[in-house]
């Protein structure tokens, strides 16, 4: 039920993001979702890709500072309040969300939300018990 996310530490210089996307493209790796958080000097690029293990290796081989993190992907009704209901479930049991990002798929009427929490297994169990559809990594990588 976990999704493997790739995180890349990038200097905030022109061309660095383009280099990452070049390396991925040259290796047949397709980006499914991404998020960038930055400061003046650096940024952290978080990616969900179709081939996470290969992405990790080719980026590392090219000298990037890269890591992998397990995240959770849940399907949320693409309507007002859809995300709020899931966030309230996690809040009630004290699970803090470190960050999240979302994307809308072309084939459904739902949004896909990617969460990073410390208590991954506990969050998965809670969400499943409350009928939230968790999308496994092999499905997310192929969206």
Automatic annotation (TrEMBL):
PROSITE patterns xref list: ACT
Highest rank taxon of the organism: Bacteria
Domain ACT: residue ranges: 5-79
UniProt source species: Desulforamulus reducens (strain ATCC BAA-1160 / DSM 100696 / MI-1)
CDD domains, per the entry: ACT_Bt0572_1, ACT_Bt0572_2
Protein name per its UniProtKB record: ACT domain protein
């Amino acid at each position: 039920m976990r999704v493997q996310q790739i995180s890349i530490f990038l200097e905030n210089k022109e061309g660095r993001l383009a280099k990452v996307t070049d390396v991925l493209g040259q290796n047949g790796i397709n980006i499914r979702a991404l998020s960038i958080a930055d400061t003046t000097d650096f940024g952290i690029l978080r990616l969900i890709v179709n081939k996470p293990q290969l992405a990790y290796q080719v980026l590392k081989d090219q000298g990037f500072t890269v890591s992998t993190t397990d995240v959770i992907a849940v399907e949320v009704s693409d309507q007002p309040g859809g995300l709020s209901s899931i966030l309230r479930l996690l809040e009630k049991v004290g699970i803090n969300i470190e960050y999240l990002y979302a994307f809308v798929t072309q084939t459904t009427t739902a949004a896909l939300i990617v969460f990073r929490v410390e208590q991954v297994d506990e969050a998965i169990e809670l969400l499943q018990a409350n009928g939230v559809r968790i999308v496994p990594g092999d499905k997310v990588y192929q969206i």
